[in-house]
Specification:
By secondary structure, the protein is of the alpha+beta class. It has 4 domains: 66 residues, no CATH class; 82 residues, no CATH class; 63 residues, Alpha-Beta Complex (Type Iii Antifreeze Protein Isoform Hplc 12); 71 residues, Roll (SH3 type barrels). The protein contains 6 helices and 23 strands. Strands 9, 11, 12, 13 and 14 form a 5-stranded antiparallel beta sheet that branches. The protein has a 5-stranded mixed β-barrel with strand order 18-19-21-22-23. Strands 2-7-6 form a 3-stranded mixed beta sheet. A hairpin with a 2-residue loop joins β22 and β23. The radius of gyration is 43 Å and the shape is rod-shaped. The protein starts with a helix and ends with a helix. 16% of the residues are buried. The N terminus is likely disordered.
Length: 325
């Protein structure tokens, strides 16, 4: 008898008897959270090592992108129903199954709305804010994430929009109303650095920034040519949108500084020295004092430090006071 038993052991070790498949030796175990790519949940989606003979669909899968949770009570009921050698270890046992999906994202919808704006000749930068902050569409994995926007409409005054998103989920269309607000932006010139009052703006002082069109004032500076070569009326910080009232012609005459007073016609040029009582740019009318007579006259700034007197009488009086014929 002992010899026969030893023979059996030897034959088994030598492979004379086939061993049972490894899969059949593995115990049934609860799977970790996972995605389900089908429209139904199978027993093997919940438990590992389910015998092939009893595996099958046990429930409809949740909607694409959604999840379902099987707690310890449900899991225990499944194991008992299908006679699986598994029992919950605690009430904390659970599995979360998520339906895999193709997702139409907010960015994809936003890009499609920009194209719709172009079709309506609304170009430039646009910020699109959806009323539904969690907007998005989940489609089954076998579907394509392609869609179209139909019935697109926009209110030019309030910049509100509405459209219908249409996508195919198998043989059935998915239709979703999409609403929100559009803010259009325009690139405008601003100062690249802080500049003090009276500074003449150069090309190097200008940079560009996007600014909401509905917040632009009627006199807003929207072209760099409106800035370059002109002077600031006040200290201005970098990046500040400018208005036409914030700029003036460069100061060619400064208050308190000496200037040349002159009148000129085809036959005569008369000059005198004066002191400016006002700042002024080219074409501005300023008052000045004749430094010899202390008489106050007015004139037009013609060039740096030069004021052309407006009337021949005043220039003549200046000339007479200087002893000229």
């Amino acid at each position: 008898m002992k010899a026969f038993s030893g023979l059996l052991v030897c034959l088994f070790l030598l492979g004379a008897f086939p061993a049972r498949a490894d899969e059949s030796l593995k115990a049934v175990a609860l799977r970790p959270p996972a995605e389900v790519g089908r429209a139904a949940i199978r027993l093997s989606d919940v438990f590992a090592n389910v015998p092939e003979g009893i595996d099958g669909d046990i429930a409809a899968a949740p909607a694409p992108g959604k999840s379902v949770t099987y707690n310890a009570r449900i899991l225990g009921g499944l194991a008992e129903k299908y006679r699986l050698d598994w029992r919950p270890q605690s009430l904390a046992d659970k599995i979360v199954l998520t339906r895999a999906s193709q997702r139409i994202t907010q960015d994809m919808i936003r890009d499609a709305i920009v194209e719709k704006l172009k079709e309506k000749n609304i170009n430039g930068k646009a910020e699109i804010q959806f009323d539904n902050r969690h907007l998005g569409v989940n489609l089954p994995m076998e579907s394509s994430p392609e869609f179209e926007l139909s019935n697109f409409d926009i209110d030019p005054a309030g910049k509100r929009f509405r459209t219908d998103l249409v996508a195919m989920a198998g043989a059935s269309p998915v239709v979703l109303a999409v609403t929100g607000r559009i803010t259009l932006y325009r690139d405008i010139p601003v100062l690249a650095r802080r500049l003090p009052s009276g500074t003449a703006v150069s090309e190097a002082d200008v940079t560009w920034t996007a600014f909401p069109e509905d917040r632009l004032a009627p006199d807003a500076v929207v072209d760099s040519s409106q800035m370059v070569g002109r002077a600031l009326r006040r200290d201005t910080a970098e990046g500040t949108p400018l208005h036409s009232r914030d700029l003036m012609e460069p100061r060619l005459v400064a208050r308190g500084k000496l200037v040349i007073l002159k009148i000129q016609n085809p036959h005569l040029l008369i000059t005198a020295q004066g002191r400016a009582l006002q700042d002024g740019g080219i074409g501005d009318t300023v008052t000045v004092t004749n430094t010899q007579s202390n008489r106050v006259v007015s004139g037009v700034v013609e060039s740096p430090g030069v004021v052309r007197i407006q009337t021949a009488q005043k220039v003549a009086s200046i000339d007479q006071e200087k002893g000229r014929p």
